[in-house]
Design goal:
The chain contains no helices and seven strands. The strands form two sheets. It has a five-stranded antiparallel beta sheet with strand order 3-4-5-6-7, with no helix packed on it. It has a domain of 52 residues. The chain starts with a strand and ends in a 10-residue tail after the last strand. A hairpin with a 5-residue loop joins strand 6 and strand 7. By secondary structure, the protein is mainly beta. InterPro entries: DUF5999.
């Protein structure tokens, strides 16, 4: 099944750019951050995953359809 996502600008992208086996989780999967990195720019603070997600170093995400996911780092617990 070849699904696509329409971005905020109207561009149609495949839900997964994943070409390896086994396939990575799709952009709408709960474990979407487990997808392989296809481009990494640590000097700019972001990586592109093969499912089309931009993952930022603060753990925020930009999904292929243009939605943003707020940073979700674990909160440190005082001992």
């Amino acid at each position: 099944m070849n699904r696509t996502t329409t971005t905020a600008t109207g561009t149609r992208l495949p839900d997964s750019l994943c070409t390896h086996t086994p396939k990575c989780p799709t952009a709408d999967s709960p474990d979407r951050e487990a997808a392989r990195t296809t481009a990494s720019h640590p000097e700019q603070g972001w990586s592109l995953l093969c499912n089309g997600i931009f993952l930022f170093e603060d753990t925020g995400e930009l999904l292929p359809d243009g939605r943003a996911v707020a940073p979700h780092r674990p909160v440190a617990v005082a001992a």
